[in-house]
Design goal:
The complex is a heterodimer of chains A (about 450) and B (about 160). Chain A is built from 17 helices and eleven strands. Chain A is α+β, with helices and mostly antiparallel strands. In chain B, the strands form two sheets. In chain B, strands 1-2-5-4-3 form a five-stranded mixed sheet. Chain B has a two-stranded parallel ribbon with strand order 6-7. Classes of the chains: A alpha+beta (about 450), B alpha/beta (about 160). The interface of A and B includes residues 419 and 457 of A.
Chain lengths: ~450, ~160
């Protein structure tokens, strides 16, 4: 078999149009079932081996950053849901943190705990999807079904808190939309223990499975030099033995109060990444348990009589000016169609009039809160961070998720930049695929957990 | 406020090429002249006391109607020392060109392609500067402030 000399090597611009005599151009995607979202890998194959590859992205570009510039800060949250749609809560909190940093807001302790709990649940969901889907692509369909079942439990919890499964828009600048619903803690404990059970089952099924092991071990190897050169973070980075996790390196929220470990690999291959993800889920479960144990009670409302009324009744009372007793009541909001009810109170919102959307009971019963509400909600008012710039990052499912926000002092961001963790991985993927087999593209690509929503923005 | 050691070191080394520095919100920021970005990046990467070995992010901001109009923004991370640094390079509208960092970090390749795609900033010495998120036939640079958000461009048919 002859290898083409440099002179006959195709120039990058004409990639795929001219190949050597023994080689074949093979196009994978964009609508290939294993290409998860929408992505195209153009390969030059020499027999069964990948001689070179080029990644083509942008199929899901929808102008996230441009939209954020023309929306108010609060209106950006639904857009952030759609970045990494497997763990939207983490995106929400990441963006909220960047704006809070600009405004110098401190969110209440209870809210920080809620954010930690919800982030970790999302991370479990993210890893479940990744491991489940990539195992399915290698033929382990049972694993996929088990993990989707477990993810469903996570989604049930998320739904009971936020009212939605994927597009949750739960965070607000300065807090979260509402408190945890009644009975959440017990349900959460039961369900994450069940998830831990599923992890054990999957462990028994595939970790020592000969076929699974052979398909992953020493495949898709990435070196520390490549990791640093491409700026890859997350499970990819940790699988090569670099111990970097934003939660430990730059602790945000209350992560420094919890006891958890960062799993690291040795070889940087697909199998190590699988193990890292499995262990991270167990660590997340540990964090959630600790957070539930120490979850501080929020400053409960001005609740003199302990009465709780429905929001429509409260609105009616307010309209007719019967506001005298309202401050003594708490209002219940029902975000879900299932009727899961919870309180909205200041325990989950920063105590700052610049950001805090007052509780409904306040709005209907005193003029200050009504004006405050107006100033935040109405067009042309809204949140106004001072002029400046801030970069804030969180540990997303796939690595460091950063938001760089530039404010010009108005109610709309001048620039919102999202640093998606997938992007550097995809930038370096061609090096990882090169030299491997065509069939291994699927295994390696599966371990990336590429989410086109955040990759293409 | 006392200046961080990183900023002091950069100031000492680069003198007049450093246009300004600040540490607002605890984020060390250096604004450096366009001519010195590659030299500065190499220094940050190699200096044993700094070792900013990861180029975490590279993007641009369009300060429309301000001169110079653009700013290329680099975010560096030092994994050994767990420090961050932001470097900004002002770039004018008439000649939006900066030296490429792709020789120092291979990851800069795609970031620079994106900045080119979205802002039309060219990177000198980039091996393969072409659009990445938009399609080749797309006209204009969507994240520039003078590109209207509701502008529609014709869909193109299948290529070859």
């Amino acid at each position: 078999m002859s290898t083409p000399s440099d002179a006959t090597k195709p120039a990058l611009k004409e990639f795929g149009t001219k190949v050597g005599e023994q080689e074949m151009f093979l196009n994978v995607g964009p609508s290939h079932p294993a290409m998860h979202g929408v992505i195209r890998i153009r390969t030059i194959a020499d027999g069964e081996f990948v001689k070179d590859a080029e990644i083509d992205i942008g199929y899901l570009h929808r102008g996230f950053e441009k939209h954020c510039e023309s929306s108010t800060y609060t209106q950006c949250f639904p857009y952030t849901d759609r970045l990494n749609y497997v763990s939207p809560l983490i995106n929400n909190f990441g963006f909220a943190m960047a704006v809070e940093k600009l405004m110098g807001l401190q969110v209440p302790e209870r809210c920080e705990y809620i954010r930690v709990i919800m982030s970790e649940l999302s991370r479990i969901g993210d890893h479940l999807t990744c491991v489940g889907a990539s195992a399915m692509e290698l033929g382990a369909f049972t694993v996929f079904l088990y993990m989707m079942k477990a993810r469903e439990w996570i989604y049930e919890l998320v739904e009971s808190v936020t009212g939605a499964r994927l597009t949750i828009s739960y965070a607000r600048v300065g807090g979260v939309k509402g408190d945890l619903p009644a009975g959440f803690e017990d349900r959460c404990r039961v369900l994450i223990d069940k998830v831990a059970g599923v992890l054990d089952e999957v462990d028994t099924l595939v970790t020592r499975n000969r076929i699974f092991y052979d398909r992953l071990r020493d495949i898709g190897v990435v070196t520390q030099e490549q990791i640093l050169s491409y700026g890859i973070t997350g499970p990819f980075m940790r699988s090569t033995g670099i111990e970097y996790d934003v939660r430990k390196a730059f602790p945000y929220h209350v992560y420094d109060r919890f006891d958890f470990d960062i799993p690291i690999g040795e070889r940087g291959d697909n199998y190590d990444r699988y193990l890292v993800r499995m262990e991270e889920m167990r660590q997340s479960i540990r964090i959630v348990h600790q957070a539930l144990d120490t979850l501080p009670a929020g400053p409960t409302n001005v609740d003199a009589e302990g009465r709780v009324i429905s929001p429509d009744l409260m609105a009616d009372l307010g309209k007719f000016g019967k506001t005298a007793g309202l401050l003594k009541n708490e209002v219940l909001i029902e975000p879900t169609l299932a009727g899961s009810e919870k309180k909205f109170h200041s325990g989950v919102y920063a105590d700052d009039r610049e950001a805090w959307l007052p509780a409904k009971e306040q709005i209907y019963s005193n003029i200050e809160a009504l004006m405050n509400h107006f100033k935040i909600v109405m067009l042309g008012h809204g949140l106004r961070p001072p002029k400046g710039e801030a970069y804030s990052c969180v540990e997303g499912g796939n690595g460091e998720l950063g938001f760089y926000v530039v404010s010009d002092g108005t109610d709309r961001a001048w620039r919102v930049r999202c640093h998606p963790p997938c992007f550097p991985i995809m930038a370096g993927l061609h090096e990882i695929l090169r030299g491997g087999q065509i069939a291994d593209i699927i295994a390696t690509f599966g371990s990336v957990n590429m989410i086109a929503g955040e990759l293409d923005r | 406020m006392e200046e961080s050691t990183t900023l002091t070191k950069i100031r000492e080394r680069f003198g007049d090429a450093v246009l300004s520095t600040h540490s607002r919100l605890g984020e060390d920021t250096v604004v450096v002249a366009r001519s010195h970005i590659v030299e500065l990046a190499g220094f940050l990467k190699e200096d044993p006391e700094l070792r900013f070995d990861v180029l975490m992010d590279l993007t641009a901001v369009d300060y429309w109607k301000r001169k110079p109009r653009f700013e290329v923004v680099y975010h560096f991370l030092s994994v050994p020392f767990l420090k961050r640094l932001r470097v900004k390079v002002p770039v004018g509208e008439d000649d939006p060109e900066v030296d490429s960092l792709s020789a120092l970090w291979r990851g800069a390749n795609w970031y620079e392609r994106e900045a080119y795609d979205m802002f039309g900033i060219r990177f000198r010495g980039h091996p393969d500067l072409r659009r990445i998120l938009m399609y080749p036939e797309f006209e204009g640079h969507p994240l520039r402030k003078d590109y209207p958000i509701d502008k529609r461009q014709p869909l193109i048919g299948p290529r070859d």
